[in-house]
Amino acid sequence: xxxxxxxxxxxxxxxxxxxxxxxxxxxxxxxxxxxxxxxxxxxxxxxxxxxxxxxxxxxxxxxxxxxxxxxxxxxxxxxxxxxxxxxxxxxxxxxxxxxxxxxxxxxxxxxxxxxxxxxxxxxxxxxxxxxxxxxxxxxxxxxxxxxxxxxxxxxxxxxxxxxxxxxxxxxxxxxxxxxxxxxxxxxxxxxxxxxxxxxxxxxxxxxxxxxxxxxxxxxxxxxxxxxxxxxxxxxxxxxxxxxxxxxxxxxxxxxxxxxxxxxxxxxxxxxxxxxxxxxxxxxxxxxxxxxxxxxxxxxxxxxxxxxxxxxxxxxx
Amino acid sequence: xxxxxxxxxxxxxxxxxxxxxxxxxxxxxxxxxxxxxxxxxxxxxxxxxxxxxxxxxxxxxxxxxxxxxxxxxxxxxxxxxxxxxxxxxxxxxxxxxxxxxxxxxxxxxxxxxxxxxxxxxxxxxxxxxxxxxxxxxxxxxxxxxxxxxxxxxxxxxxxxxxxxxxxxxxxxxxxxxxxxxxxxxxxxxxxxxxxxxxxxxxxxxxxxxxxxxxxxxxxxxxxxxxxxxxxxxxxxxxxxxxxxxxxxxxxxxxxxxxxxxxxxxxxxxxxxxxxxxxxxxxxxxxxxxxxxxxxxxxxxxxxxxxxxxxxxxxxx
Lengths: 316, 316
Fold this sequence. Notes:
Two copies of one chain form a homodimer. Chain A is α/β, with parallel strands linked by helices. The first copy, chain A, has helices at residues 2-10, 14-25, 29-38, 58-71, 94-97, 100-103, 119-135, 150-157, 173-178, 198-209, 234-250, 253-278, 281-295, 301-315; strands spanning 46-52, 76-82, 108-114, 140-146, 161-166, 187-190, 223-225. Chain A is built from 14 helices and seven strands. Chain A has a seven-stranded parallel beta sheet with strand order 3-2-4-1-5-6-7, sandwiched between helices.
């Protein structure tokens, strides 16, 4: 039965892809088998991350890039990572809807993840979803995420090309840098480039990027002007993505990146496994008691840490 | 010698406080002893987190609140968490400088942390710094951080009262919610409240907050209008913080929060200890070899994970 699922995924059957993603997301019994099968096959699907501050037009740009890739007859998987509040659900996320026009195309598979507060899980699921698309033989996987903070850094670590989307009014350069987006971009997009101040924003972005460490062999992140809503500049973006891909290939960085990624992921899996085995109900209760003893100054913090580590290493 | 350090910290000696923070930040040999000593003493310093999108005026508000607290003769420690790009350093962070006027007051101790990409370390240092201020007998510890993403969630989990700062132009409600700030605020501040659209922004914020789950016993997050640069609304903010503190005290939530925080921190310390012991050079090399075998389909991912976990638990 599960072999049938793998066959279907490899035939790009959407229902089977959706099923695999759900099993992985729910950490179901089948998920380990699915991950085992798909994790050894990766390397074909090129992973693009699209990030930027709220309001920069990431969804519209993703939409436009998607259209371009579909025109080129590529198969594309999209993971929209959405740090939405859990108490409002996803009901108000109007800009997702804009993706639905191209979202129904047979070459496209879109999955949204509401992920607030479970960042470790986000990275894990996002990479495994990429592996599923890979296994299915999709040409591209696009990750869209709201930038600023840890999530866009995690995504940057999990893709081949990171596209940072800004708008002229993204704020002065200092704010943009504080957002920490400058260091992770392989390609910068100044979207809504018909707005006032666009050229100035590009110039100051250029200035900021000139501080990035580089030598003759490093990739110089280009800045592209787009008006995603009018589908302007999308060819440019597409070409720059291919250029970056070729740069990575030429310098053997693509395989290196992917192995590094895989290694990080395995280490996370192992950490999670250790945590699961460590925090039995018994040790949790012991910790509660010890915390009270620390407050009463009868135990030291370091003693508690060492005792728990040792009990784990010796007794099981 | 180290006992002398503790005595000096307890006397609020700034150089000794700075020294303790540096030792902890550098994870020096002394740091364990320092943490052991300070970690059992906490509970006096009230922790306030100030977060919000870039450009909301967090630093100005922190500055104003600081001034208010100093006027009340309180001692205040400030940790400014700054996810700056490492390649530009902190040189361009103009808005930090604005804090320096009050920053030199004898009752105030300010520490900036540039923390990009080391989020686990950030939380650890931030809480331990709070413990140092606590040990010194400071009345308040303020954490300031750029919101959106994981860092502000981490800070929210480490403070008693979280203040979310917004401005009328923070963008439409959907974007604000995507930023995920709505669920963590105990108090909301609409800063720059003299700007156009302020009342409308307050109204839509009110609407969004009405979706938050609550019952007759829960805290209803108030919205305060401020013009921090003109020191307007700061008394209101201060009073609401005290109100929230009393609410927590009355419902026995303050101690609960603090114990929970301490527990999470010990668990992190233990995880880090396990990771450190696990990833010897030998096991790192083994993992590299195994990754190649996975790609050659000679080994399964789950086998690799289980073997490494077991080797750690049995062989040391």
